Amino acid sequence: MERRISLITLGTTDLDRSRAFYEALGWSGESPDGEVVFIQAGGMVLALWDRALLAADSEVVDAGGWGGITLAHNVRSPDEVDAVLAEAEAAGGTIARSGAVAEWGGYTGVFHDPDGHPWEVAHNPGWPIADDGTIHLP
Questions:
Q1: Do the beta carbons of residue 60 and residue 67 sit within 8 Å?
Q2: C-alpha to C-alpha distances, 32 to 4, 29, 97, 138, nearest whole angstrom
Q3: What are the domain boundaries of the chain?
Q4: What is the pLDDT of residue 2?
C-alpha cells in the first residue's frame, strides 16, 4: 500500500451549515448530488457528508462522541496561526485553544468546526512548508 491519504470525510449534522463554514474559510467545494460536498485540499479531498450516512457506510455505530481524530493545518509562522484561528472564529467556528508556544518548540492553537471536528493550526519550525503548501518530514 502506498503511503497516501486521498480523502477525509467529516460527518455533519447540517450539511448546509458545514458547507457555509468551510466556504467562509475560502474552501469552496462541489456537490454532485446535494448530499455530499467535495473540497479540493492540496493534493487530497475533504468531503462533508451526513454523519448518520457516513456511520452506516463505514459500518460503525455512532455513539455521538468525539471520533478520536484531529485534523491539522500547518502554517508558515506563529502570526499565521493566530490569523487562521481568527478566520475560523469569524466563520462560525469555536476557538478551543488560543495560539500559544508549544512544549515541542512550535506554536499551535485549536478550533472546532460547527460539528465539533477539531482542527489544530500549527507552526512547526522543523517542518518547512513548500511553495505548493506541502510538508515533507525531514
A1: no
A2: 24, 10, 35, 39
A3: 1-58, 69-131
A4: 81
